[in-house]
What we know:
The structure holds two protein chains of two kinds.
Chain A: H1 3-29, E1 33-35
Chain B: E1 10-13, E2 18-28, E3 33-40, E4 48-54, E5 58-61, E6 66-68, E7 75-76, H1 77-85, E8 92-93, E9 98-101, E10 106-118, E11 124-134, E12 144-148, E13 154-155, E14 159-162, H2 177-191
Parallel strand pairs in B: 1-6, 9-14
Antiparallel strand pairs in B: 1-2, 2-3, 3-4, 4-7, 5-6, 9-10, 10-11, 11-12, 13-14
Amino acid sequence: MEWWGWVIVALVVIVLVVVAALAVQARRRRGGVIIDGGSSRRRGSGGRR
Amino acid sequence: MRTSEITKRPVVTMAGEDVAQVKDIIYAAGGGSVGGFTLAGRGLFAGPLKEGLAWSSVSALGADAVMIRDEFVLQPTKAILEASRASGGSGANVLGSQVLSDAGLDLGVVRDVIVSVDQATGGHCDVVGYEIEASEALGTQGEKVLIPLPDTIAASGEHLMVPASAKEFVGRDLAGFGAAVDAFRAQLGGAS
């Protein structure tokens, strides 16, 4: 392969690595709603029929 | 408001410093109150932060930012999780969990959580409902609907339990949902 072929391959690899890194970071930053309770102690109003 | 509107909202000090953004919302099933938030950094390559923000340290929850006094109100995330976990917790993400009625009916899958900030009680933030992708049981399969929750919530993170009567108070938009929550809780309170 010519030297410019290797340059293109290197650039493609770099772009893929950067995209992968951004995707991993986006996944790590993705938020949710964490529930910290597994029981249903009744507090006052509300409850089962 | 929906919790999806709160995640990724910037956390800003009264001095105008943008210190973090909201990552997760933590709430305790025992009382349904929001305990706080986990945080992520603001840069493109920033990941989750080791500090979190307790609800008691929030000065204001605005449409565009969460306001805090200064960056020193941030606490280790572990401390905030343990405070909420005191009611017996799993630490699991409820998004994507299945909602079951106490009659054993699959109502749908959670896609968002609805919270309400009560100014009358000093800005207490409570979880009042779920936005679910309805199952066949609700007659609106695949449609997103809002289902109210009682004052206390039974949940494991895999399955979220709601009283069977919650089906009668399902809504489609936030505009009238507050009234539906009040009516549902009044019905539960009257029946117990």
